[in-house]
Amino acid sequence: MSDQADKAGTTVAKPPPWNDPFVRSIFFQVVAIGLLGYFFYSIFDNTLSNMAKSGVSTGFAFLTREAGFGILMSLIEYDETHTYGRTFFVGLLNTAIVAFCGIILATILGFVIGIARLSNNWLVSKLATVYIEIIRNIPLLLQIIFWSVAVLQALPDPQNSIKYGESFFLNNRGLFLPKPIFEDGFGLVTIAFLVAIAAIVYIKRWARQRQEQSGDQFPVFLTSVALITGLPLLVFLAMGMPISWEYSALERFSFVGGSNIIPEFMALLWALTMYTAAFIAEIVRSGIQAVSHGQTEAARALGLRNGPTLRLVIIPQAMRVIIPPLTSQYLNLTKNSSLATAIGYPDLVSVFMGTTLNQTGQAVEIVAMTMAVYLTFSLGISAIMNWYNKRVALVER
Amino acid sequence: MQNTAPQETTETQKAGIIQMIGVHKWYGEFHVLKDINLLVDQGERIVICGPSGSGKSTLIRCINRLEEHQQGQIIVDSVELTSDLKHIEQIRREVGMCFQHFNLFPHLTVLENLTLAPIWVRKVPKAEAEEIGMKYLERVKIPDQAQKFPGQLSGGQQQRVAIARSLCMNPNIMLFDEPTSALDPEMIKEVLDTMIELAETGMTMICVTHEMGFAKTVANRVIFMDEGQIVEENEPNEFFDNPQHERTKLFLSQILAH
Ligand SMILES: Nc1ncnc2c1ncn2[C@@H]1O[C@H](COP(=O)(O)OP(=O)(O)O)[C@@H](O)[C@H]1O
Ligand SMILES: [Mg+2]
């Protein structure tokens, strides 16, 4: 007895290593990593030797060869004489642009519908419910094809375009818009924009200091909006509007000049936005509902108005619940954009893992590169959202 | 602050800081408040008791319009409560409220809980708001918890923070809705002591509670409610020793049985 008490008094007795939870966990982790490493090594080794046997060349030399095929839409200069390397970037950018636009639009639409679902107005909340229930229960691929067919086939041919003035044309080849051409002096407008941003940062600091000293609140948000639109606009007008537009025009059977948004892009973006927005709406609704009604009541009882109550009490708490699932919706949208292949939108999977792979046969390199792109996008989105989560969400405990 | 209409004198204000005249309220078909008439003078301390579901919470929540009444008049500090948002805001600034479940803001520190309303409603400079906040935290005897989050405090401490939070708005009237009924027995006393100290400052208080000791110590009047009506109303000793109505007797025998 006294012996044991002595031991306990100095240090806690150590169990034998095979019973020590710490030693055990290290051991199992080392074993797991070893097995995983061996698994991947054997796959890799096996594939390479198979490819060598069937005479497929390996390595990344193919990226510098001429592609020899055209792509429907590219954000950078591209034609069939460019290399496979460039094809990769065209596909990557096409995926990035549709994912980026989709995330922004789906977030806006999702928040609007999510809040609408909580509305006291019977019709508004029922409409939001119906939207959510219909959209999220139909497979995305079906929706993409539906919008593609609906958009492509419902639109008139170029001769009978739906037009707005002589500058916007909508037909089954896409939406044709004037293309801006920046002239001398536009640089100043950009500078004005940057100055406005700097001013906003300064005003925010100043407003906080003033509040701490005098208690007065300053309408920072409205001032910021005014500054960021007003200042560049003013410079723009003062410089004599240093921008001109290249208009699209109908030549024989098609439009030339201006910029063109292809219908495949519109259909894909529209379907991805609608679909993801339905899920985001549910996330937003449950996030707001997760904040107990007592919080609103406490804020009201203190005399806070609806605006500050939402901004200072409800949203910060709802965000804690909203952000993690919102992040996974963003990731889903990005990955779902690869369904583009079904309607011929030239995204990364379609041009690189499709056409390029067919032409070169270098499956391992191409699949690896494509996977690396999606992985990078996903990790990037996660990193941004985690950073945002840390900043905005809860510092509780 | 300037919520007194100019023609009102201090006399009338003192004599009926809260006036409920023929108040009725329905939740859909359910008649929850039936012809409530209640006059509360400045500095008076009222305890409301009654069985669960009798409408006690609804009654006091009508006073700062967390619930709206459908018939009758409620006048607080000479301002009549209508759907006029301006009046509602004005009254909520003057009337503090503490809830059964505290309803502290979990994402803000204790001190931030206290300064939020002064900063955003009263437009007090931050440093000054923090000074006020610390003053009231000292009043409720937990200044050392200022930088913690509500989730790190005990229930009794949380309720005291909630009381301090209301006091930071410098209210004329305090409403309490069963402030101790979610607390473990050993914490009830610290909250009641805080409330007794508050009563000693002359604060007008309406308190829904079944703490009979508290009622006897501080209340000027005890009100018994049942099924949406005020059944009986008397000064505390008379109320407990000599209840008039059968329903009151039954209720008192039930709560004293514990
Ligand atoms: N929002 C509401 N909708 C419908 N009925 C309600 C609502 N709030 C309370 N009630 C009902 O009104 C009655 C009185 O409630 P309440 O004032 O909370 O009673 P008490 O506080 O005396 O227990 C109860 O029967 C309750 O079910
Ligand atoms: Mg109640």
Task: Provide tags for this entry.
heterodimer, A: 397 residues, alpha+beta, MetI-like fold, 3 domains, four-stranded antiparallel β-sheet, two-stranded antiparallel ribbon, 12 helices, 67% helix, globular, B: 258 residues, alpha/beta, six-stranded mixed β-sheet, 10 helices, 10 strands, 23% strand, disordered N terminus, binds adenosine-5'-diphosphate, binds magnesium ion
In summary, what is this structure?
Chain A has helices at 2-10, 21-53, 84-117, 122-136, 140-154, 186-214, 220-238, 263-290, 293-301, 306-336, 348-360, 363-392; strands at residues 162-164, 168-171, 174-177, 179-182, 243-246, 249-251, 254-256, 259-261. With 397 residues, chain A is α+β, with helices and mostly antiparallel strands. Chain A folds into 3 domains: 2-53; 84-178 and 260-392, MetI-like fold (Orthogonal Bundle), CATH 1.10.3720; 181-246.
